[in-house]
Each structure stands twice: as structure tokens, then as C-alpha cells.
Specification:
The chain has one domain: TIM Barrel (Alpha-Beta Barrel). 43% of the residues lie in helices and 13% in strands. The strands form three sheets. Strands 8-1-9-10 form a four-stranded mixed beta sheet. Helix 11 links the parallel strand 6 and strand 7. It is an alpha/beta fold. It catalyses: 3-[(1-carboxyvinyl)-oxy]benzoate + S-adenosyl-L-methionine + H2O = 6-amino-6-deoxyfutalosine + hydrogencarbonate + L-methionine + H(+). It is an enzyme of class 2 (transferase). This is Aminodeoxyfutalosine synthase. InterPro entries: Aldolase_TIM, CofH/MnqC-like_C, F420, FO_synthase_su2, MqnE, rSAM, rSAM_sf. Its EC number is 2.5.1.120.
Length: 357
């Protein structure tokens, strides 16, 4: 049995915690937990809060997989199918480039009708026409999908991505690593072991990626801690993760039928636990598109040091009820961070500081 006084002593000493101790963290009151998470955050970043000027593009919502938690897929609750043309995507990037974006973030559904060449060709076109814009694209779930569709290894898909101009990988598709929960919420999708393998291969190419965790649905606190520690284990080996992003589950328009959204108290605890346990992943992102802007700013006092970016347009989380459809203007972002008592720092996609406000 883990005593609270022993846990607090470990927190005071900055000791690395194990699974049982990680679960026990959730029993601490949120203020105590926030105190220790914030101490780590301040030691590393002071009052800096990072954001980037980015554009999210979701090229298609037609999906081969059937995930119970998803409100975005057009094959189920969303009857409005679409697939953007390359011309539409390039026009979007051109317009956003005039707004000063540094990154285009491209993720979407697993559409069997678009294909490998369709994706790689648009990456090549973006790289040719906008050489200074960082391309963050294709989740591990999408790589797994393309691998199975085209009978290619993960390594072969990754090599093609690199040749086509992709700079870094987003962290989507991780959901929750526990396979029992995974079977219920996203059965048939990339497995937890496969997700970790894909990111390991990506890191071995000398490339960076992010990692996510979807929480606030049917998972347990134990599932969250297991997920976080598996990421910590891989980071010990590769040191390839830029950031960890706990994604707050959105309750609308899906088949899980979670009646009540997770509480703000539980969200803040999860951010804090993430910061404490992930001693080797530098950045904890409170992704405002799932947590709300206000809570993302509060999370900066509970271990988070990043709020993501301006986004401009977002389709996946907003389909499930998030207020993120039209993004946030850059100057508004800066003012919000300042008013919360933090120093806004514009960063690039791999966390080089570009401008301190």
C-alpha cells in the first residue's frame, strides 16, 4: 500500500514514479497535485506559454474504420461526405500562408478511395510551392491504414512520407492503449503496439512526433497511467516525442453515449499527472480545441506549457461538439495568454522559439 506521505516525499525529491504511484497521484487533491506539476513546469519554462501559427486541414471524412467515439466519419452519424481536391488544399495553404502560418497540420479519415499517391502528391505539391511551411501529417493510424491497403511495411510508408516532404508526425490515433478499452472504442484500428512501433520507426529516421491520449470516456485512471508510462518507456529509447497532448473526449454525435463530460477537476488532474510522470517528454500541450480556451489557460498552472495554435479551421473535434471550428486569431491568442498571467511565445513545430511577446 502506498502512503500519501511517502508519495509526497517522492514528489518533493523529484523521484521518478511507478505505475502504482502514478495511480495514487489522482487521489491527491487537485491543488496539491497542481502545485507539484507547476513546480516542474516553472523550473523548465518559467512563465512561458507556447503557441504556433498553424492551419489544420482535414482532406476527407470518408472512413473505412468504424470507431465508436468518432463524430467525424461520414460513414456513420455524419452523412455529409467530402474529399477535398488537391487544388482546394493548395488554395487553402496559399491563403493561410498569407496569414503567416508556419505549419500545416494534415490528418483525416481512412479513405480507401483516395490512396497513397493522392496523399504523397499533395505533400510534394505543398513542399514545392511553400518550402518554408512545416508539414505535419499522417497519424500512426493513417500509416497503419495505408500499410494494410497497399501491402507495404510501416518502414516503407515512412520512407515514402519523408521523400514526399513530411517533416513531423502528429500524435493522433493513440486514443487509449489498453486493448480492452480499445476494442470497444476503436476496434479494428491500429493497435497500441503498432502505434508505438510506428512512432519508434519514425524517430529512428531522426524525425520528431507528438503523442496523444484520449480521455474522459470509458477509460479508467489506471488506463491513463498505463498509457502515459508506455510513452515514457518509448521516449527512454528514442527521445523522439516533442510533446504529449491529453485530448479531452467530446461527448456529442458518437456511439459511446457518455452521458456526462469529464469534469474540469479531472481534466486538470490529468494534465498534472502527465507532467509529473512524463519526466522525459518536454512539452505538455493543453489542446484548447478539446479543453476549451479558458481551461487550457488554467492548465498552464497545472503542468501544461503549450496551448497549440491558431488552427484557423478544425473539423474533427468540432464535429463532436468542441467550439474549435474557426480557430483563434493570433493577436487574440497573445492577449489571452498575457491576461492569464503568462508570457506568450510563438514557436515552430519542433519548439524553437520564434518570438517572445
Amino acid at each position: 500500500m502506498i502512503l500519501e506521505k511517502d508519495l509526497l516525499e517522492k514528489l518533493e525529491n523529484g523521484s521518478r514514479l511507478n505505475f502504482e504511484e502514478g495511480v495514487k497521484l489522482f487521489d491527491l487533491d487537485v491543488i496539491t497535485l497542481g502545485h507539484y506539476a507547476n513546480k516542474i513546469r516553472v523550473d523548465r519554462f518559467g512563465k512561458k506559454t507556447y503557441f504556433n501559427i498553424n492551419r489544420h486541414i482535414n482532406p476527407t471524412n470518408i472512413c473505412k474504420d468504424v470507431c465508436q467515439f468518432c463524430a467525424y466519419s461520414a460513414t456513420r452519424k455524419n452523412p455529409n461526405q467530402y474529399t477535398l481536391s488537391h487544388e482546394e488544399i493548395l488554395k487553402t495553404v496559399e491563403k493561410s500562408s498569407k496569414n503567416g502560418i508556419k505549419e500545416v497540420h494534415i490528418v483525416s479519415a481512412h479513405n480507401p478511395n483516395t490512396g497513397l499517391d493522392w496523399y504523397m502528391d499533395i505533400f510534394k505539391k505543398i513542399r514545392k510551392n511553400f518550402p518554408d511551411i512545416h508539414i505535419k501529417a499522417l497519424t500512426a493510424a493513417e500509416i497503419h491504414f495505408l500499410s494494410t491497403e497497399y501491402n507495404l511495411s510501416y518502414q516503407e510508408i515512412i520512407d515514402i512520407m519523408c521523400e514526399s516532404g513530411v517533416d513531423s508526425m502528429p500524435g493522433g490515433g493513440a486514443e487509449i492503449f489498453d486493448e480492452k478499452v480499445r476494442k470497444r472504442i476503436c476496434g479494428g484500428k491500429v493497435s497500441s503496439t503498432q502505434w508505438l512501433e510506428i512512432h519508434k520507426l519514425w524517430h529512428e529516421k531522426g524525425r520528431k512526433s507528438n503523442a496523444t491520449m484520449l480521455f474522459g470516456h470509458i477509460e479508467s485512471r489506471e488506463n491513463r497511467v498505463d498509457h502515459i508510462l508506455r510513452l515514457r518507456d518509448l521516449q527512454n529509447i528514442t527521445n523522439g516525442f516533442n510533446a504529449f497532448i491529453p485530448l479531452v473526449f467530446q461527448t456529442e454525435n458518437n456511439y459511446l453515449k457518455v452521458k456526462e463530460p469529464v469534469t474540469a477537476n479531472e481534466i486538470l488532474k490529468t494534465y498534472a499527472v502527465s507532467r509529473i510522470l512524463l519526466d522525459n517528454i518536454p512539452n505538455i500541450k493543453a489542446y484548447w480545441a478539446t479543453s476549451t480556451v479558458k481551461l487550457a489557460l488554467i492548465a498552464q498552472e497545472f503542468g501544461a506549457n503549450d496551448v497549440d495554435g491558431t488552427i484557423e479551421k478544425e473539423s474533427i473535434q468540432s464535429a463532436a461538439g468542441a467550439a474549435s471550428k474557426n480557430g483563434i486569431a493570433q493577436l487574440e491568442f497573445v492577449d489571452l495568454i498575457k491576461n492569464a498571467g503568462f508570457i506568450p511565445v510563438e514557436r515552430d513545430s519542433i519548439y524553437n522559439e520564434l518570438k517572445v511577446y
